TrEMBL record:
Its EC number is 3.6.1.7. Belongs to the acylphosphatase family. Coiled coil: none annotated. Residues 15-102 form the Acylphosphatase-like domain. It catalyses: an acyl phosphate + H2O = a carboxylate + phosphate + H(+). This is acylphosphatase. The active site is at 30, 48.
């Protein structure tokens, strides 16, 4: 993680770029992650990678980004996450909604 979410104020707009590994393909992971991101009004994408991991890019306020990360780390997230590496940077504003790609 290049920067921690804790170093930001709750209203700052951030971008989380994550690579998630484990049992995360073929279990509804992208669908439920997109639904949770929509619920939190985050914008971005989620996609399967060829290596079996999932790529997540989410932008929005720090408080909502933290809620998504907490959900992903919880037992409520689908599949079984073994590792989640993510970077935090300033939001770019390139997304209008959250969608599943690929």
């Amino acid at each position: 993680m290049t920067e921690s979410l804790e170093n930001r104020s709750a209203d700052d707009e951030v971008r989380i770029t994550a690579r998630i590994t484990g049992v995360v393909q073929g279990v509804g992971f992208r669908y439920w992650t997109a639904r949770k991101a929509d619920e939190l009004m985050l914008r971005g994408t989620v996609r399967n990678n060829r290596d079996g991991s999932v790529q997540l890019v989410a932008e929005g306020p720090v408080s909502d980004a933290e809620a998504l990360v907490s959900w992903l780390r919880s037992a409520r997230a689908p599949g079984r996450i073994e590792n989640m590496e993510f970077d935090v940077s300033d939001a770019t504003g390139e997304f209008d909604e959250f969608r599943i790609v690929g």
